[in-house]
Amino acid sequence: MLGMNNRVDLVEKITPWRESWEVHVKVVKLWYHKNPALDPSQNLLHMVLMDEKLQKIQATIRDQLIPKFVVSLTEGEVYLMTHFTVVPNTGLNRVAKHRFRLLFQYKTSFVSVVSVRIPHSGLCFTSIDEINQRKDDDLLIDFVGIITGVRKERDVASYGKMIKAVVLEVFSDGKKEQCNVFGNACDLLEYDNLQKYPRSPLIVLESFKIKAIEGGIILQNVMNVSRLFINPDIPESVEFLSSNIQDLRADNRDGHYFVIGTIKEVMDEPDWWSYSCVCGHAVVEHEDLYLCDACGSCIEHVMVKYGIRVKIHHGGWAVLFVLFDNAVTKLFEKTCSEAFLRIEEEFPVDPNVLAV
């Protein structure tokens, strides 16, 4: 990398058994944190630092030293850092995998470097399979997916205050993951904020905790530490949304998938609709009644629902997809019942044809 000093150390090499270190690091995350359970009066400034090899380490500035350094700290900038203390990286919520963390001292030097660029955002996404293997881990993780469900819960008590609570359903890796969000972060998940997007929004969860509960694993934010971003303008968003049809063709597993493509053709087929029960389940015609397996009974009143095939192209590949009622209603901007009425208006049946 241009401008890098050969004498600069790598973050992965840092240990307490040497006093003199000199590193080029990018500040990828900054946050203030108090621990009301221990000492509510002490304020700490934490940060995550990353070098050119994308290795990260956590650093902390104690309360009395914050005014000395905070004026020169900017998230996203690169600095030359020297004269710091190295201590074990312990605690309930670790943000970096590194065994050690850095403590700022009065003599610590933290000088901005304009000749060095580290463009990577510092996000390192964990898959759902990896989350399920790690279970109740104290290392916070980053996660990316598509919001497929939002449920607002009752406010909960936290250290004498009532805070907001939202339960998210996020789709990624062909699966869905539950994510619990507390506090001010819930404001981003208000209905009006999400409704303005033309499609289900992408969400990036930064520094979330893996939590084991009865029946499975969930993700949960840590107050003042975790952050979430809706449709962030970063390369990782584009990469996630660029899952293409070729990837889908190569994966024959059952599951949920998210792909981007262009509908080139709606197949002209006679069986583009079907009858369904009001419960949404398909029905089987039996004389003058219909059988619904889900309800376990015969029903007289049925609904008509879409079921069409479309040809979708992306990246030189084409695949037939079956779209059902909700998706087709959004595509055609009319329900299946409205489509039938439109057909009757445009192509009226001559009563003489039906006369015996």
Report the portion of residues in β strands: 35-45%
Order of helices and strands: EEEHEEEEHEEEHEEEHHEEEEEEEHHH
Number of helices: 8
Number of domains: 3
- Please tell me the CATH architecture of the largest domain by its name: Beta Barrel
Alpha-carbon distance between the termini? 87 Å
CA radius of gyration: 28 Å
Q: Mean of the pLDDT scores? A: 84
Strand order of the largest sheet: 5-6-3-2-1-4-7
Please report the first level of CATH classification, the CATH class of the largest domain: Mainly Beta
> CATH topology of the largest domain, which one?
OB fold (Dihydrolipoamide Acetyltransferase, E2P)
- In CATH terms, the superfamily of the largest domain is Nucleic acid-binding proteins
Class derived from helix and strand content: mainly beta
* Broad shape: elongated
Provide the low-confidence segments as ranges. none
Can you count the beta strands? 20
Main β sheet profile: 7 strands, mixed
Fraction of residues in H or I helices: 10-25%
Domain Replication protein A 70 kDa DNA-binding subunit B/D first OB fold: 10-109
Protein name: Replication protein A 70 kDa DNA-binding subunit B/D first OB fold domain-containing protein
Pfam family, one: DUF223
